[in-house]
């Protein structure tokens, strides 16, 4: 089984450095829609048998070109972005930056039960992704497209590499970057990691 895992396209929240999380159901902006089209043009030749997204529309819109081909589509909250709690919807500031670094720093140090007020911990994110992967491994399709979110993608790739969730910040991503995971009886092998060739071909990659 080959699983293509991408982050959603750009939104105005991304552009303006405003925290989204699972509580913000934003749309793609013009750049995000261009990124989504570039990904479609580069991967339309793949015989995808299933499209899987979070329940947030920025992932739906990113892979809508595939969904419109009548490929079976499954939505799951397990792929939603992490909940950043009280931080969601807040613009960039020194206070927000400090609060964010404190929590993420705790996760890196192995304190994965820490969370923002009203938000999810790294352990809670890991638990729902464990549930998602258990479901995914039972699928019979050979080519599956998965669209998710930045922090969720970090944790998902970390799990697939059998690393602790505290290592998730080692996983790079930008909007619509692609990971290709080949599932075999022996384990998971990555054919692509943080691949941006579709953005380069479309002239959308910012230097």
Measured on Cα atoms, how large is the radius of gyration?
16 Å
CATH architecture assignment name = 3-Layer(aba) Sandwich
Task: List how many beta strands DSSP finds.
Answer: 6
Low-confidence stretches: none
Structural features, described:
The protein has 207 residues and is an alpha/beta fold. It has one domain: Phosphoglycerate mutase-like (Rossmann fold). The protein is 36% helix and 17% strand. It has helices spanning 12-15, 30-43, 57-62, 64-67, 94-108, 122-136, 150-160, 197-201; strands spanning 2-7, 50-53, 73-75, 143-148, 178-184, 187-195. The chain has a 6-stranded mixed sheet with strand order 3-2-4-1-5-6. α6 (122-136) packs across α7. It is globular.
Quick synopsis:
The protein has helices spanning 12-15, 30-43, 57-62, 64-67, 94-108, 122-136, 150-160, 197-201, and strands spanning 2-7, 50-53, 73-75, 143-148, 178-184, 187-195. The chain is of the alpha/beta class and 207 residues long.
